[in-house]
Amino acid sequence: MLKTEFIKLIVFLGTLIIFCFGYGKAIQRKSYAASSVELLQLLEVEDKLVENLNDYVKKLKRKLNLLDKSLLIMKAEQNQMRDDYEAYLGNPLNSFRLIHRLHSDWSKWHHYASKINKDELGHIEKANQMRKRLPTAHDLEQSCRGIDGLISFYGLRPEDLAAGNLAGYPNPETALSAQDCFALGEFSLRNRKEDRAEIWFNLTLAQFSKDNLLYKVNRFSRFTVHNTWAALLVKNQALSDDYQFEKLPKESEKNQLYQWINEEILTKRNCRAIFRQQSRLHCRYNSSTTPFTRIAPLKMEELSSDPYMVIYHDVIYDREINWLLDTAKLSLSLVDAGTMSEFRASKDANIILSQGKVVRTLDERVTDMTGLSMELSDEFSLINYGLGGHYVLHTDYHNYYNQTRWARGDRLATLLFYLGDVDSGGATIFPMINVSVTPKRGSAVFWHNLHNSGDMNIKATHSGCPVIVGSKYVLTKWINELPQVFLTPCMKR
Question: Could you give the CA distance from residue 412 to residue 209 in angstroms, rounded to a whole number?
Fold first, then answer.
């Protein structure tokens, strides 16, 4: 009995496996690009889609014609009113008709104009169902690979293919559109064929036509091409500082890629030159932040009012710097590894208050320099940038959600001590306000990351330029906003 049941189970499982295998083969579809027989099916699909769209357009035209005819009647009535408003409204029948039109007719027109009839929906639904038979992203990738293979195998030129010239057989009707060229350019970019991608992007711009209405449907513009092309140039480090984007479409927002590329341009331009924004700001002795500064004022140079930014000169002494550097060599050697990436190349370690009198003295001096409380603020962070050491554009505030911000507080301000000179490079730049600060032993730069209102100040975006020659040591203090509630009252921006 047991043996019989076991045989039945084996037969059942075998049947199930065969069925699943057959089903898997049944749902597997060959790639359209792999066979001309498969491509024939696409011609049938396109015929049906065109026919369906044509019927849909006819219905929309009938609707539009009715609206156009009705609009002529409405304009005639409107012109009659404009000739003499008083005479028109003096007739009670006209007054009645006006009220009736505005009360009843316009709401019905709105309903008619926005209503989609069932037969119209039928066309949309049919087109939606046929999407299952359309080529996939994999099909497009394979077709791009096919064109790219022809170029590589036969030495064809993209310029000839774009013009419809296939291996000496010219046919202008088969010329590639701007979007076709762009798709091939993106394929080349994904497959690390940057030179070929650049050719396709050039051809895209050459084929681009401002009068092509389909671009609006497909959200395709010259900006789309420039955005992708600029990313390629940045990757190849061939993007010049004067690179100009096409004007951004009004309905679009600057996307992350666009912002990143512009940040790259700004960073490189500002790192290569010393920028100081022209202003009426000046140097003076600061003697007003705390009672101590009245008897020991600090040398202060104003750099910006938005964000508030100053440099203090000779604000940290040689013996303090030497102690910090000796501590730095020990502290940084205990760190397993520095941060090395396209965003940052440095090594850092915390210098805490319990490490000695120097740290406590510096903590008090930061209060004298800024007039702010150090309570809840981060510990000092000692950072070392070696050859090529850098930090890309960033902001110091956390941009917490409200609940987290009320509990922890955000970084109101940043103070950066320079513990040594740098032979070449290593400046701290603020590209949005054209300010750069060159590392100078004993100086410190202080700025606000938030507006007086508490909002994030994007103008405080900054970067550490790569160190060319030398080694850069900085001591950073991030100051928390919560303890400053009675020290920095909110003011109008």
Answer: 49
At a CB cut-off of 8 Å and minimum separation 6, what does 492 contact?
452
In this structure, the number of other CB atoms found within 10 A of the CB of residue 179 comes to 18
Alpha carbon of residue 418 to chain centroid: 32
pLDDT at 138: 82
* Tens digit of each residue's pLDDT (9 = 90 or more) over 336-357: 445 544 555 577 788 887 778 8
Residue 371 pLDDT: 94
How far apart CA 149 and CA 305 sit, in angstroms, is 58
Residue 344 backbone dihedrals phi, psi, to 5 degrees: -155, 140
Confidence of residue 13 (pLDDT cuts 50, 70, 90): very low
- The one-character DSSP state at 433 is G
Token pair for 338: 């520095």
Whole-prediction pTM: 0.54
User: Mean pLDDT over residues 118-137, rounded?
Assistant: 67
d(CA 283, CA 154): 69
Q: What are phi and psi of 164, to 5 degrees?
A: 85, 15
* First-to-final CA distance of the chain: 90
- The CA distances from residue 87 to 82, 95, 97, 408, in Å, are 10, 11, 14, 71
Q: How far apart are CA 419 and CA 433, in angstroms?
A: 25
Angle formed at CA 333 by CA 329 and CA 336, multiple of 5 degrees: 155
Q: Which helix (H) or strand (E) holds 113?
A: helix 106-114
Q: Is the distance from CB of 178 to CB of 162 less than 8 angstroms?
A: no
Rg (CA), the chain: 35
Is residue 425 within 8 Å of 469, Cβ to Cβ? Answer: yes
Which tokens hold the place of 352?
A: 């805490």
User: 435 and 429 in contact (C-beta within 8 Å)?
Assistant: yes
> What's the mean pLDDT in 19-32?
45
Q: How many angstroms separate the CA atoms of 313 and 119, rounded?
A: 78
Dump the DSSP string for 257-272.
Answer: HHHHHHHHHHHHHHHS
For residue 307, say if its preceding peptide bond is cis, omega within 30 degrees of 0: yes
Per DSSP, the three-state class of 165 is: strand
- Spatial contact of 351 and 379, defined as CB atoms under 8 Å apart: yes
pLDDT digits (tens, 9 = 90+) for 302-319: 999 999 999 999 999 999
Q: What pLDDT digit, counting tens, does each position of 247-300 carry?
A: 444 444 455 545 555 566 666 667 766 555 555 667 899 999 999 999 999 999
SS (H, E, C) 361-394: HHHHHHHHHHCCCCCCCCCEEEEEECCCCEEEEE
